[in-house]
Write a structure and sequence with these properties.
The chain has two domains: 171 residues, Thiamin diphosphate (ThDP)-binding fold, Pyr/PP domains (Rossmann fold, 3-Layer(aba) Sandwich), CATH 3.40.50.970; 125 residues, Rossmann fold. The chain is 36% helix and 19% strand. The longest helix is centred in the first third of the chain and has 15 residues.
Length: 321
């Protein structure tokens, strides 16, 4: 992999590699053959592999996600581009009630190895219907795996891992990271496990995606020795490294781009309180987006987005309970 690749280019390279090595891998989505999709993820793949394997679909997520589930049951390995995670709501029956349940309800006889690529989060003035972050919702559905890669190396590894997995996998990509080229420590780790990307002794930050980079910035400004855990696999949630880190530092900040109610942070907090309560020297602090639809006005969207100063303030709170 080129050190100059951004996340989109790394994902495209991983997808191209999978298509070269496995003829079962097929791509479905809006404009994936003609324009490379909304973020040019599949640019050049139709020319390379043909429109039989890179298929444009109608603007109807319920239809093409449902078709992908059927293809997976028939032996294919479909990769589905669902532009924005907001639109998975339209295909929630196909993904949550069918793909996620087939292996369990068939007694293990069948599975639906569908990979869903989708983009989440605010930035760019896309408005309330294109900017939500729904990680916590997806994480509440047993039978679905959710990966949230934070670096180009991990993005490529996540694409290959998802396409090789026997279960439905959602690749939830933070929009502000799409063109990021920033590497992270421990990039050689497995995408299926949480990983420590910065070692520290005073406090722990548990986060994923875009906010891994923001947390690193905040920790440097805080003046404290902060350990940062990149959750990566947010369903099923891997909390073991978080618990181990909290047992060392005694303090925890959970940061996410979702709104506060019912989000991923609640799952992390509950797990840590259950398993490492007596190791905590301060209440857990959580940083999240405000519980409101994402605004479009530039000044309001900028105020909505979690920034390094928000995490830096939370670090101060746990260090000074």
């Amino acid at each position: 992999m080129s050190s100059n690749e951004n996340l989109i280019q790394a994902a495209r390279a991983g997808l191209a590699e999978a298509m070269e090595s496995d003829e079962r891998v097929m791509v479905l989505g809006e404009d994936v053959a003609s324009g490379g999709g909304p973020f040019a993820l599949t640019r050049g793949l139709a020319e390379r592999h043909g429109v039989e394997r890179v298929r444009n679909t109608p603007i109807c997520e319920s239809t093409f996600v449902g078709a992908a589930v059927g293809m997976a049951l028939g032996g294919a390995r479909p990769f589905v581009d669902v532009m924005f995670n907001d639109f998975i709501t339209i295909a929630s029956d196909q993904l949550f009630n069918n793909a996620a349940k087939i292996h369990f309800m068939s007694g293990g006889r069948f599975s639906a190895p569908v990979t869903i690529w989708t983009v989440a989060g605010a930035e760019g003035r896309w408005g309330a219907q294109h900017s939500q972050h729904l990680a916590g919702w997806f994480a509440q559905v047993p039978g679905i795996k959710v990966l949230s890669p934070a670096s180009p190396v991990m993005m490529r590894a996540s694409v290959l891992a998802a396409l090789d997995d026997p279960d439905p996998v959602v690749l939830l990509v933070d929009r502000p990271l799409l063109y990021s080229r920033a590497p992270l420590a421990n990039d050689e780790a497995s995408p299926w496990k949480a990983r420590v990307v910065q070692v520290g002794s005073d406090a722990t930050i548990a986060t994923a995606g875009r906010l891994v980079h923001v947390a690193i910035e905040a920790s440097r400004a805080s003046g404290s020795s902060v350990e940062i855990v990149d959750l990566q696999r947010i369903a099923p949630l891997d909390v073991d490294p978080v618990v181990a880190s909290v047992e060392k530092t005694g303090r925890l900040v959970v940061a996410h781009d979702e709104v506060g109610c019912g989000a991923l942070g609640a799952l992390v907090e509950t797990a840590v309180y259950q398993r490492a309560f007596w190791a905590l020297d301060a209440p857990i602090a959580r940083v999240s987006a405000p519980s409101t639809p994402v605004p479009t006005a530039p000044n309001l969207e900028d105020a909505y987005i979690v920034e390094a100063t928000d995490i830096e303030r939370a670090i101060w709170e746990v260090m000074n309970p």
